[in-house]
Amino acid sequence: MSYRLGVDVGGTFTDVLLVDEDSGATWRAKTASTPSDQSVGVLNGIDKVCAEAGIDRAAVAHVLHGTTVATNAILEGKGATVGLVTTQGFRQVLQIARSFVPGGLAGWIIWPKPEPLAALENTVEVPERMGSDGTVVRELDEEATRAALRKLRDNGVEALAVSLINAFANDAHERRIAQLAAEELPGIEVSLSSVVLPEMREYERALTTVANGYVQPQVARYVANLSAKLSAEGVPAELSILRSDGGLSGAGAAIAAPVTMLLSGPAGGVAGAVWVAEQSEHTELLTFDMGGTSTDVALVQNAQARIGRETKVGDLSVRASAVDVRTVGAGGGSIAHVPQLTRALRVGPQSAGAEPGPAAYGKGGTEPTVTDANVVLGYLPSSLAGGEITLDREAARAAVQTIADAMGLESAEAAAAGIIDIVNENMLGGLRLVSVQQGFDPRDFALVAFGGAGPLHANALGKLTGAWPVIVPPSPGVLCALGDATTSARDESARTVLRKLGDVSAQEFTEIFTELAESTAARLVDQGVPADRQTITYSADVRFVGQGNELPVSFDLADGPKGLAARFDAEHERLFSFTLPVGHELVNARAAVTGERPNVAPISLDESIAPPEKSGHTRIYVSGEFVEAALYDRLKLRAGDIVEGPAIITEMDSTTLVLPGHQATTHPSGSLLITPAKEA
């Protein structure tokens, strides 16, 4: 027998899920993350889950990994020193950027413009020019190029990005510069814009290419280190990395294009949420992943996560396909504080992380966090992660009391309730970004809550959004690892077309997209995915003639140019409530190829024959008063069991809170479906 192993490394915990590839049976484990060297936490998790399954490490054939290494390099500003090669006259392409300032009215007054990832002193120009149609306007001056590369070498650059004007139409000069760089800068990784993002718009192409080079050395070191340690520790597994768009790529492909994995971690959670929600017959979803450091939210239609063309990490926004996930700085470790100036309670985005963690963890943390507030309110059991972390209730109360004192509140419970209310509102803001702001009514969706802290806040978020039922999957704390283990290989190709749709014949239209699909399929074959197990999907960036911005639209190849135009009109109408009586322009063509989804056996619970057995009672603080809540062990719940709130349902990796006036019904697939009692 062979096994697949999904691993998700978060800011606080590392989650592991083991799948028997023959039977689909699964085992789960959770262990503390090790920020100084994430591979240590990964190996600890592998040991724990293999012991649980009673197997040897050598039986693990595939390790499927969602990682935040690339994300953290951007957020922490710890990427490589990147040199950028541009066409003569375009040296300040990153400094000029786009004339867009985030924020509301007069946001420009306080917005600090982020520094480009490639400094101006490490940006060089080379004499050359391509036309927008791919013709050579000016040949590449190789001697001047060598001199520019030697300057970058003397500046100590650690990675090289090459982004020439109109290289998307003809990449000959970029490929030649890569050859010259191999001679002048031996051992330096080179990112070409014609490979990373072969699309028009020089700023976005240059920025994405530089971002690829910025994270590439760190990603390469991490992947190589993890692969070596897996091998040294007796895990002869093939390592695959989760992409931002929810697919998998081989370790080599991930190192070559790390910009495609900036949202690797959150994408795994969305994939896992879709899988479990399908088991309970729900396909229209809002996903809500609350971990120790942040909360990730996304919207799913017809069991398909919305894929965007932008990846946003902090102030950086690059052109790379990614699940449309929005991240809020709100997690179990988010620190509550009262600024001296306003005397108003704030929660996050600062986090206590895994070290030292919340005060309740007993690792030296003293600042009040969301986890401490949940402890004070009585929502959490005495230990977490299967006994790995024992909670110190007195330390939690002492930390939260500092908030009560600062605000003049009468009790620590009142301060804790305020912390929870504020963090819930912060997360509601994220959910509105992916729903209301995109033209969707959250009441038309179910809310899937997971992550270690998600089920504690799920019922409250259901009340705030009106999204019912709230679905709490089995083992919600390790659902991201389930997503890693249940996803399939994926790759995509794109090219700029920039032609009026009315001028493109049906045959030419088919040829453009078929060529992209064939080249992408061939790359997946090289990664071990047979052609007969591949699925092809098509999308395009389309706009009205005369517009400056385009919309991504998915379609079937049989739709042809007219069908694509009709789909664009429908999407434009949905987003902006109008269309224009003008022609359409095909800007970028794209084909994505995915492999077969692996076999994972769904949970099937026995039918309940008696009311659920309570494991005890506890007092919790809700709506300004203490109430008696029943305790339940989730492992003892059976299909059809109904848990009336107020109640707390405990399991190894998470805790679910059912509020008064609500109830949780156990679905045969193992998920808890929380609804208002009158609607159950």
TrEMBL record:
Record key words, sorted: Hydrolase
UniProt entry tagged with the keyword Iron: no
Biological process terms in GO annotation: glutathione metabolic process
GO terms, molecular function: 5-oxoprolinase (ATP-hydrolyzing) activity; N-methylhydantoinase (ATP-hydrolyzing) activity
Hydantoinase/oxoprolinase N-terminal domain: residues covered: 4-184
EC number: 3.5.2.14
Domain Hydantoinase A/oxoprolinase: 205-488
InterPro entries attached to this UniProt entry: ACX-like_C, ATPase_NBD, Hydant_A_N, Hydantoinase_A, Oxoprolinase-like
Keyword Cytoplasm carried by entry: no
GO CC term, one of those recorded: cytosol
Pfam families in alphabetical order: Hydant_A_C (PF19278), Hydant_A_N (PF05378), Hydantoinase_A (PF01968)
Domain Acetophenone carboxylase-like C-terminal: 506-666
Protein name listed in UniProt: N-methylhydantoinase A
Natural source organism: Paractinoplanes abujensis
